[in-house]
TrEMBL record:
Flavin prenyltransferase that catalyzes the synthesis of the prenylated FMN cofactor (prenyl-FMN) for 4-hydroxy-3-polyprenylbenzoic acid decarboxylase UbiD. The prenyltransferase is metal-independent and links a dimethylallyl moiety from dimethylallyl monophosphate (DMAP) to the flavin N5 and C6 atoms of FMN. This is Flavin prenyltransferase UbiX. Residues 5-173 form the Flavoprotein domain. It comes from the Bacteria. It comes from Dethiosulfatarculus sandiegensis.
């Protein structure tokens, strides 16, 4: 039996990362269990053309963020782990301090206590010391801090390619095979496959 990956969507900018992760998992036929915060649902309307019902339809199972008695609230319910994409600073703070005020945070706390992978795609910039200390605290508890920082070595053709690379990096930590982006094969291989993409030297 393939264990489900829990996907949390909180209210930071970048809800498209959670949506694209759900789409990728559905395409891979990997089960996904979804929790969307109230602010996350609001941001779907602000930042995307997806309705909440459309996003929910991408998941294998959906939970109400207020339902702290749901399956994923217990460590005895087995999962592959959890990703919060995107992760607000408020959500990060709650995870770092085990402040289980809703199902999203409780599921993350359960993931940590059961020693399962928890990936937090923290979305905020610039970061002050308090943010950094929260990240360090969450990391000390076992979370992986994976801000969706754009990469360009895979020769992205648009925003979707940049988003899919970050999603793919997150899925790598759950050993889920995918082809979401072109992986680095060494400098020579990159130059040989894309010689026209080499940056021209800046005149002195």
């Amino acid at each position: 039996m393939t264990l489900p990956l829990v996907i949390g969507i909180s209210g930071a900018s970048g809800v498209i990362y959670g949506v694209e992760m759900l789409k990728a998992l559905k395409e891979l036929r990997h089960p996904s269990h979804l929790i969307v915060s109230q602010a996350g649902a609001r941001n779907l309307a602000i930042e995307t053309n997806y309705s909440l019902d459309e996003v929910k339809s991408l998941a294998t199972r959906v939970y109400d963020v207020k339902d702290v008695g749901a399956a994923v609230a217990s460590g005895s319910f087995r999962t592959k782990g959890m990703v919060i994409a995107p992760c607000t600073i408020k959500t990060l703070s709650a995870v770092a301090n085990s402040f289980n005020y809703n199902l999203l945070i409780r599921a993350a706390d359960v993931t940590l206590k059961e020693k399962r992978p928890l990936v937090l795609m923290v979305r905020e910039t610039p970061l002050h010391k308090g943010h950094l200390e929260l990240m360090a605290r969450a990391a000390d508890l076992g979370a992986l801090i994976l801000p969706p920082v754009p990469a360009f070595y895979h020769d992205p053709k648009g925003i979707e390619d940049i988003i899919r690379q970050s999603v793919g990096k997150a899925l790598d930590h759950f050993h889920i095979e995918h082809n979401l982006f072109r992986r680095w094969q060494g400098e020579e291989a990159q130059i040989e496959t894309k010689p026209e993409q080499r940056l021209k030297p800046v005149p002195a």
